[in-house]
Amino acid sequence: MKQTQLTLDEVLDHLKNRPATTSTYRVAEGVIDALPLTELPHMRVMDEAETQELADYLGTPASSLKGTLKVFDTQCSYCGRRVTFLDFAKSAVDLGRHSKDGLRDVLTGRNGAWLTIRGRDGGRPVNCAQCGSDVPRDVKMNGSYSEYSSGSYAYA
Ligand SMILES: [Zn+2]
């Protein structure tokens, strides 16, 4: 995670001219809300059970998770699990990209706002939290898209 805080203009510039590698940046207050990410048709709002599952994984009450949790609407083609924020969180922890404690602080809004910006390397893999299979890349969309967002953390 990069501690340098990006402004909205800097974020929009990164989205237009993608950096080489996918990275997570701290962003200024209000940047996530200002991004045109969450109204896209492939995003869905996570239900209560899915939110609880994520909260249990992170070891925090569901009510402490900040903002509306939205996720790319797709399912694992192997076991049929509907992908949620948890699958992205668990994949990042398992790959050593983020610590579980760090993710909890981010998703509860205790550590500011963060944005993972997909780079020209094509983004980060996601594994099914139920069976461990790769969620195939061909279900992902090209161009500017989000795979998940909350009140304090998003992917662009
Ligand atoms: Zn699966």
Give short descriptive properties of this protein:
156 residues; four-stranded mixed sheet; binds zinc ion; 5 helices; alpha/beta; globular
Give a summary of the structure in a few sentences.
With 156 residues, this protein is an alpha/beta fold. The protein is 27% helix and 17% strand. α3 (48-58) runs parallel beside α4.
Series of secondary-structure elements, N-terminal to C-terminal? EHEHEHEHHEEE
N/C terminus separation: 15 Å
Report the bound ligands by name, code or SMILES. Answer: zinc ion
Structural class by SSE content: alpha/beta
Summed up, the domain count is 1
Largest sheet: 4 strands, mixed
Shape estimate: globular
Helix content: 25-40%
Report the portion of residues in β strands: 15-25%
**Main sheet strand line-up:** 1-2-5-7
Unreliable residue stretches: 138-144
Tally of DSSP β-strands? 7
Estimated radius of gyration: 14 Å
Tally of helical segments: 5
Mean pLDDT: 86
